[in-house]
Amino acid sequence: MGRNGKKKSCLKQKIKHRRVANRKRRRAILICTSGFFLVVAVFIAVHKFLLSSFFDFDTLDVVGCTRVQISEIRNLFESQFKKTSILNINLQYFKEKIEENQWVKSVKLRRSLPGGVRVLIQEHQVFALLSLEKLFYLNPQGEVITEVQLPDHLDYPVISGLIGVDSQKRFEFIHRAYEVVEKLAGIISRKDISEIHISQQNRLSLLMGQPSIRIQFGKYPWQSRFKRLKTVLEDIRRRQIKVRSIDLDYNKKVVVKLRK
Predict the structure, then answer these.
(1) What pTM does this model have?
(2) Cβ neighbours for 73, distance < 8 A, ≥ 6 positions apart
């Protein structure tokens, strides 16, 4: 084959390769264009689906309410109910609004597709009552929850004697009263303690039972007096005598006064 023949053969191969490359390029462009329009179509379809009434907020499930009124929680969501997509509801905003209720210790909000919100509330538990100018609920940490609203079941010990005491000192006294209740576990049930009175001279007394018995612990610290109290109460219960007061404010003895 001559030189001219070789040149023609190379030229034909180049043209053939170019045509193949052009076909591949056109195919790639067609695939990319088709893919782009497919993605756009899917996006539009998904967008319309998300905006459809399928995701409208239509269910509110509230769990954990005893003190908190469920109607109060529902009223917070009223403006969004059956008007807003569940995906557009600002859960953080409603969490903060619910936490404004003084009974709420913690709250979690969850979306429940397609159209629900689940509200999980943990309330403060009442451990005792604090008597100042008004009566207040106390949680197990000794913190004030809120003012007592009647009618209510007030079957808790009342801590008294702290009117006029500054908040930091009052908090210390409350914890000392809690310490007494804890130490008395197994001796006197918390539900049998009606009042714990702490004087500003650091003297403690409590009322227990019905009819009530006043127990004088005297001045802080009181640790050495719990064992003597246990012994005295066991003797009183065994003998079934009616007691008016028990005074533990002595180094080694206990003074018991009987009812007439």
Answers:
(1) 0.75
(2) 60, 62, 65, 98, 119, 121
